[in-house]
């Protein structure tokens, strides 16, 4: 078995059975993603996808949280980038989600603690998602003046347009029960029972032919318009960086770092 080690932002391992695990590994900031985490995730997914020894991918978060969205300090820096670097930052998010969505083997997310923004996007991209009862979710990008365009198509496909409209436009947080109701996750599983639940699903995967799984997944993604081409990715990334680079993007990320309400907030009368 290949054990993950070191302080890399994404730890990868493959066990003797062919279960690959990608652990998001910035626990000191709730596994918030930045350019290095995205680059590591992209590299890992590109490496694991064609490996015939890999039969399944499990996505986890180190520490107390699954994934708390984008690193707000990185967003603040990225808002000051020039156009090319800003576009590249948004394209990295778009590409990572595309690779996860189109990964040719079954993908399973084990959610606990915070799951915000891009973390919800990752959950939308996997095939099976479980969450502990204490999990908290939120599509919170608009609250810091940015737009979740890199994950927008995946949100709609996973939760439906109606639920996406509510939560992506209001930024409201919601609990694991609501996440199940709207289709973001499949089941709530107690933390102490999560590994047993995972093993049950893995055993079901290993009873299924890997070629048939890959063909089935490719078929329903392709036939239902769930595969992004380069033109669509470019459009999503462009929309993302232009909003992040806008006055709202600067104000929203600054307000979050300074722990204050943004200038557009209007209190109730």
Order of strands, widest sheet: 1-2-3-4-6-9
* Poorly predicted spans: none
Report mean pLDDT, rounded to a whole number: 95
β-strand amount = 5-15%
Task: Count every helix, treating DSSP H or I runs of 4 or more residues as helices.
Answer: 10
Task: Provide the structure class.
Answer: alpha/beta
Choose one word for the global shape.
Answer: globular
The CATH superfamily name is: 2-enoyl-CoA Hydratase, Chain A, domain 1
Number of strands: 9
Task: Provide the CATH topology.
Answer: 2-enoyl-CoA Hydratase, Chain A, domain 1
Rg to the nearest angstrom? 18 Å
CATH structural architecture: Alpha-Beta Complex
- Counting structural domains, the number is 1
Q: Please summarize the sheet with the most strands.
A: 6 strands, mixed
Order of helices and strands: EEHEHHEEHEEHEHEHHHH
Tell me the helix content.
40-55%
Report the CATH C-level class: Alpha Beta
Report, as a whole number of angstroms, the end-to-end distance.
Answer: 61 Å
Present the secondary structure layout.
Elements: E1 10-14, E2 19-24, H1 35-48, E3 56-61, H2 72-78, H3 83-101, E4 107-111, E5 114-116, H4 118-125, E6 128-131, E7 136-138, H5 149-170, E8 173-175, H6 176-181, E9 187-188, H7 194-206, H8 210-223, H9 230-244, H10 247-257
Parallel strand pairs: 2-3, 3-4, 4-6, 5-7, 6-9
Antiparallel strand pairs: 1-2, 7-8
Short descriptors:
single chain; 269 residues; alpha/beta; 2-enoyl-CoA Hydratase, Chain A, domain 1; 6-stranded mixed beta sheet; 3-stranded mixed beta sheet; 10 helices
